[in-house]
Every structure is written in structure tokens, then in C-alpha cells.
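#struct-pred
JK: can someone run the complex with nicotinamide-adenine-dinucleotide? inputs below
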Amino acid sequence: MTAKTSKKSKGEYLVRDIGLADFGRKEIEIAEYEMPGLMATREKYRAAKPLAGIRIMGCLHMTIQTAVLIETLAELGADLRWCSCNIFSTQDHAAAAIAKRGIPIFAYKGESIQEYWEFVMKAMIWPDGKGPDQIVDDGGDATGLVHMGVKGELDPAFLKTAPKSADEKAIFGILKDIRKKDRKFWQKIAAGIRGVSEETTTGIHRLNHLAKAGELLFPAINVNDSVTKSKFDNVYGCRHSLPDGIKRAMDVLLSGKQVVVCGYGDVGKGCAEAMKNERARVIVTEVDPICALQACMAGFQVARVEDALKTADVYVTCTGNCRVITAKHMAGMKDQAIVCNIGHFDDEIDVAGLKAVKGIKVTEIKGHECPVHKYTFPDGHSIYLLAEGRLVNLGCATGHPNFVMSCSFSNQVLAQIEIASKKLEKQVYLIPKKLDEEVARLHLAKCGAKLSKLTQEQADYIGVKVSGPFKPEGYRY
Ligand code: NAD
Ligand code: ADE
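RT: done, C-alpha cells with the ligand placed:
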């Protein structure tokens, strides 16, 4: 590990190699050309600086695309600190470029779990000891840490419970250390937070859970469910980055292979289509009859994981659920099967259960740059696990491409402006449809698209305004 801290530049940083900054800058410049929504947002708000002086903490994959988001928020006046939301998702040249620009960044590809949570803490706390005004979160880890911190202060017994995972072990350790110095630390941090904008489906599940239990400590904006996020990033982003991840990891021909895609929601639709485009033979697993029927209508066979064990070559999980592929499943798979996950956390594939199989042998094929491990069972058959069961598209490749991330991150910027400019309640909000349509509009020219315009007569006939919104709230696209 060659990461280092330094306070010589304008900000602190902890990156793998600051020498990668120039390469990072060149790729950021390419990305800017492909991110018209973000760049237009930058132009529109540059003079007004709606985020002037606002402390924004980001916990979101530190990629080239995220660098363009960070620099957009900075142009709008924000005072930023950033960390990644996954131990394998940082692009080290992107992190270096952000560090060189003077924005505090704590991330490198291949962090340990302990380091990961320490970096979340570093991004959370400013040099004056204060916390953020606003959070950009992806998967809910930063939001969750604040909530766990407050819970531990109000109910110290909570921190005495046995940690259920390596993440919880690291978090409890950090929270206990803070508690020794300040018993109201997290309550003060939480009280200062105006709101969070959450990027992904799994983070929204966590926020809705907190809101339902009446435990949400600050307002939240659901970026994921903007149409220009979940129906673009989750579908087309994964359609691009899933095959990229599998190929970089295994260099395998997907054509002719049997691929099982677990979950046919937004991500599953993109993944199944990508595998079909590779001429793989695709099987979809689902629990929801509507999504299962959609998969049938798209021409996929719908079956159970158990039905495919003897024949499938590749498994992809994208349910946002836990233990969808169990150690027992993997024990029953065909020799040399490839197993990966593109959902948010590492429990869709029961990696802990796999590691606990008696007599299992683990061989590292490739390290943190593109993690691939071979697990050999006592009966002699092996499976390959990609990215240690974490997001394969970010662990083994570079995530979604610029254009689709421009849509997602334009929504993030609008959400951050909304939090800064409005007094919101402690609930989960959606971005207004008018703004969602605006994000799409900003990306049309790049595709050479020309919009038709409603006449007043037509607008009246279908009951909308000439300028939109063009669909009722519940429309599903
Ligand atoms: P979604 O809710 O649209 O789809 C999930 C689907 O999985 C649902 O249709 C659900 O019925 C199904 N499902 C649940 N449990 C199942 C089980 N046991 N077996 C089979 N199917 C099951 O969610 P989504 O937007 O598609 O997101 C899925 C996951 O991907 C989330 O964790 C999300 O955070 C993550 N995500 C990852 C990326 C990425 O770049 N890797 C991008 C976007 C979202
Ligand atoms: N999520 C998926 N792909 C991503 C990317 N390239 N950057 C940030 N977050 C992502």
C-alpha cells in the first residue's frame, strides 16, 4: 500500500499515488465532453453559486465520472470532502486528480474494511471538528454511520452487541473510540445535517426503512427513482459495465454460455439484455410474478437457481437482496462456474458462508486491480468468485460510462441544490418530474435527437402543459 497523507496541498488527501493525477486529469477532460448534463448544470449555476460555503461530504465510488460530479459541486461553491462507497471501486488516477486540485479525498482501490470506515470518518469530519451540512451517499453507508452513532449514544447497550459482520466490527470500534472522548458527538453531527441525496436502490431501501420506523434523523432525496437515473444508469449502465467486468476478470467468451441473472428489476433487465447481446443463453430468476412475466416476454427462460446448477456457466446477482446464491448452491455448481454480483453489497452471494465451507481452498488469481479468486471445494470442483462478491462492474472494470453517469449525477446536483435551498422535513423526497425531464432534455442534443413540440390543442387534448411535465406522477416509463 503506497497511500499517503499530506497537508501540503490545499487539502488533505489519502490516495494510492498522487503521481497519477495528470493521467486522471486527462480522463476527466474526456469525461466532461461526454457529460453534457453535468456541464450544463455547471454553466447554469456557476454565477449564482447555490452551494456557496456548504460543507458536502460524499461517499460514492471515486471514479472519473464522480470526479466530474465533485468538480461540478465545487464550481457551485461547495466545500467538499469525499470517500468511496466500496473498497474496490476507486479509480486511483481519478482520486489523485481530485487530491491535486486540493479537494480532500480519502480513497484507493483495494482498501481494507477497517480503512474503508476510517476513510468514511475522515470524509465526515472537517478540520474544525464539525460535520457536513449535506451528504451525497451511495448505498447508505455514510447515512447509516450517523444513525448508528446516534443510536450508540442514546442506547450504549447497542455497541455491546456482537458485531454481525466485518463492517459492523469496524464501525463499533470507531464508535466506541469516539464515545470515550465525546458522548454527544453524533447527536451534534446529525443535528447539523440538512439532508442527504441517495444514489442507489439499496440506499433507498435503507432510508425507507428508517423513515417507516420514524427514525430518519434528517431529510433525504431519492435520486435513484428519478426516471433519468434508475431507468438509465441501472439499466443501460449495467448493460455496458457488466460484460466489461466479466471480460476483464475472466477474458471468457460469453457466446454460447449459459448465464443465470438473478433478479429482473432495472439492473437485471440491463444485465440480461447484455448477456443476450453477447449471444449467451440467459436464464432469469425472480420472486416477483410481474418481473418474471416481463422476462418471459423478453424471451428469457425463468427458472430457479437450483434448476440451473448442473448446467450454468456464469451467475450474476442483481436483486439487492441477501443470500440469493448460497454456499450450498456454489457447492452444487458445475466445475469452473463464474459467480459475480452487480447489486450493492457482498451478501447477495453468501461469501461469508462460502469461506466457512469446511476444507475449501482459496487461490488468488488476480489481486485488488481486478479481484478474481478460485474456490476449490473438497470434492475437487472449483468456482471463480469475481470482486470478492462485491460490485463486479466497479471492482473488475470501471463502472458505468460517462454519458449515463451524467444523467445520474445531474440529478445528484439538483438534489443537493434542493437540500441547500429548501427547508425539508425528515422524510424521503423524489426530485420533481419537471427537473427529471430537464435532465433528459440536457442529454438529447448529444444523441442528435430533435424533440417534437405539442400544439396547445394537443396539450389540452391529453391534459398536460405544452412545456410539460408530460406524464402523470405514477407513469412507469
Ligand atoms: P429492483 O428492485 O428494480 O430489482 C431487484 C429485483 O430483484 C426485483 O425485481 C425483485 O423482485 C428481485 N428479487 C428480490 N429478491 C430476489 C430473489 N431472492 N431471487 C430472485 N429475484 C429477487 O432493483 P435494481 O434497481 O435493479 O437494483 C438492484 C441492485 O443493484 C441494488 O442493490 C442496487 O443498489 C444495485 N445497483 C447497482 C448498480 C451498479 O452499478 N453495480 C447500479 C444500480 C443499482
Ligand atoms: N456507479 C456505477 N458506475 C459508476 C461510475 N462510473 N461512477 C460512479 N458511480 C458509479
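RT: quick notes.
Residues 200-202, 230, 233-234, 237-238, 262-268, 285-288, 291, 318-321, 324, 342-344, 391, 393, 399-400 surround nicotinamide-adenine-dinucleotide (ligand 1) (CB under 6 Å).
DSSP finds 20 helices and 17 strands in the chain.
JK: thanks, will look after standup
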